[in-house]
Model the fold of this input.
Amino acid sequence: MAQSTKRIKSISFFLLLISFFCLLGFGQSNQPQTSSPLMPPAASTISIDVDNIYYLILAVTSFFFFLVVFLLIYFIIKYRAKKPGEEGINFHGHMGLEIVWTIVPAVIFIIIAIYSAEILQKIDNVPADAMVINVTGEQFIWHFEYAADGVKSDKIMHVPLNKPIVLNIEAKDVIHSFWVPAFRIKQDALPHEQRETWFQARLTGEFPIRCAELCGPGHSQMLGTVIVETETQFAAWIQEEKEKANAQENALSDSAKRGLDVIQHQGCMGCHTIDGSKLVGPTWLGLYGKTETLDDGSQVKVDEAYILESIRDPNAKVVNAFPAIMPTFGPEKISDDQIKDVLEYIESLGTTKSK
Ligand code: CUA
Done:
């Protein structure tokens, strides 16, 4: 008997040692710049708190997991039937033990609940001087609008370092979810209903944005990037974007401008880009005049007639390597005149000469 008590003591000591090391990891994320192999970089102020509670819960649950498994194995060996037909001792509970294993978890739960509530309050408490960015989720792209400057961007969100940023998040079509793992923030984007969340970046660099709600066939491609830069770099970027937008606007004819309005209103940019990059649908950069290969191997020249057909009846001639998922836009959605404006805009993005 004395020997088994000794063994239990050494096992308990070993378990305490393991949980001590878990807790060491938990304290570490308080130091700036460090991040654990379990988590993406802790790039926002709140991420340190979120990580701390995560590591606390991990340490507590690991300790009890190992304790239960070790005791289970120990008891299986110690109290096994040594001779065939041997019967175990009949137990009828143990008051002391039951009180301990009720009170100890209850106290741990209360501590975790209070700690979580404190962090939740921090997450909900938006600083009054925060910079506002409007975020719109749309199948399958994130749009950003910098409220103070009127600047807009798609897929890439620029933010200054060490400045509280509040995001007003909504969706244009279905439910999306705006998630920046490095900031430990995730907020559903609901159709026509604004939700708020905020963060303050503490590390410069590029961090991925994900959509965390299955929102359609392009869900996995609904990616983006947050670029955290110094205040000067951010101001320079805003200035540059303002000038670019002005220059673009001035270069367009009136008809192309109207076409751009239609395109933005109908949400075409969720699937088509104007910079040559590939989304769910073909890019419009240099599209006009191009010769495309269809699924059946036949070729078609992109002209007014083909674009018109592709808007009215998108599945008639689908370009090879693209899914046939474009919705139909009948005259009740886009009138013939509006299509002319859209064509004018697409043509303004450059034409390709084909043979
Ligand atoms: Cu948007 Cu998934």
